[in-house]
Amino acid sequence: MLNPDTIEKCLYTKKIARQLIVFKSTSSTNNIAWEYSSNNSNDGLAIFAEHQRCGRGRRGNSWLDSDEKSLLFSILLCQNKIQPELLTLLAGVAVAETLSNFAINHVRLKWPNDIIVNGKKIAGILTEYKKGNIVIGIGVNCHQTTSDFEPEIEKIATSIDIQRNQRCDRNVIAAEILNNIEKWLEIAKNNRDRVLQKWQSYSSLLGTRIGLLYNKEKYYGNCIGIDPEKGLILQLENGGVRMFEANLSSIIKD
Ligand code: BTN
Predict the structure, then answer these.
(1) pTM, to two decimals
(2) Which amino acid residue places its CA nearest to atom 2 of ligand 1?
(3) Strand, coil or helix: what is 122?
(4) Cβ(56) to ligand 1 under 6 A?
(5) With a 6 A CB cut-off, is 28 part of the ligand 1 pocket?
(6) For FRET with 82, which of 60, 66, 155, 180 sits at 20 to 30 Å CA-CA?
(7) Segment (H or E) for 195
(8) What is the residue-level pLDDT of the chain in tens, covering all 254 positions?
(9) What does the pLDDT read at residue 137?
(10) Residue 72, ligand 1, Cβ within 6 A
(11) Distance from C-alpha of 129 to C-alpha of 139, rounded to nearest angstrom
């Protein structure tokens, strides 16, 4: 079970998750984090849940979970100075780095925020921003077996336990993701390029041909750049260079 004391024992952060709440069940941890956002003293607050009744994914999708099998949590950043798009990439780097450190091989990042292992999604990130405040929501599949996923999801999803063939400790992994988020937040303050370089080291997009669904239209081209503000930069097959902002895009072929 998730246990705030066990997570705290493994934390070496100054700000992130120094306030930490674990819910048995909630609507969405992002929603709860937003309820605390009017008070700046809640900066760094982390909200965890064992189950979400209305878990949200990107682009209006739902994020489904089986009770007590995932890490489902949100971090509130008040009056944040770092660009939200960079924060999404940064959170992806922190999750990818943590999973790699826990002996998961071939962790990749799929733009902008999917964490992929051996071609299957293991984690996702939903970053929301309002009035200078940010909520970073992270969902990681941990104890699922293939039969825990719906048939149509099973082909495209995986979990830490499936990849490692042994049961992981969610408290330890949660703490390590939080530690890595704070580490990368510190780095991003002075060196945004290091975040981008690290992100690119987990991605195979640059220089490859990809297809993109953007605003319900399909585009194909060569990826010539990734920029947190401008999004994905494609040299289009039918001529021209175009930028695609992250929150309206999803990759259909890479
Ligand atoms: C995606 O890949 O579409 C993003 C999924 C994000 C899911 C997490 S689970 C914790 C937090 N609360 C939510 O409702 N969503 C995020």
Answers:
(1) 0.92
(2) 124
(3) strand
(4) yes
(5) yes
(6) 60
(7) helix 192-201
(8) 999 999 999 999 999 999 999 999 999 999 999 999 999 999 999 999 999 999 999 888 899 898 999 999 999 999 998 988 899 999 999 999 999 999 899 999 988 889 999 999 999 999 999 999 999 999 999 999 999 998 888 999 999 999 999 999 999 999 999 999 999 999 999 999 999 999 989 987 888 899 999 988 999 999 988 887 778 999 999 899 999 988 788 888 65
(9) 98
(10) yes
(11) 18
C-beta of 63 in contact with ligand 1 (< 6 A)? yes
The CB of 173 under 6 Å from ligand 1? The reply is: no
**Atom 3 of ligand 1, residue of closest alpha carbon:** 57
Q: With contact defined as beta carbons under 8 Å apart, do 52 and 63 qualify?
A: yes
What pLDDT is recorded for position 47?
98
Contacts 24+ apart (CB under 8 A), 35-38: 36/76, 37/76, 37/78, 37/130, 37/133, 37/135
Q: In what order do the strands lie in the sheet containing 70-77?
A: 20-23, 46-49, 70-77, 133-141, 120-130, 114-117, 107-110
In angstroms, the CA 129 to CA 85 distance is 10
14 CA → ligand 1 middle, Å: 25
User: 90: CA distance to ligand 1 center in Å?
Assistant: 16
CA of 235 to the centre of ligand 1 (A): 31
Asked if residue 52 has its Cβ within 6 Å of ligand 1, the reply is yes
222 vs 211: CA distance, rounded Å: 9
Q: Is the CB of 116 under 6 A from ligand 1?
A: no
Q: How far is ligand 1, taken at its centre, from the CA of residue 112, in Å? A: 13
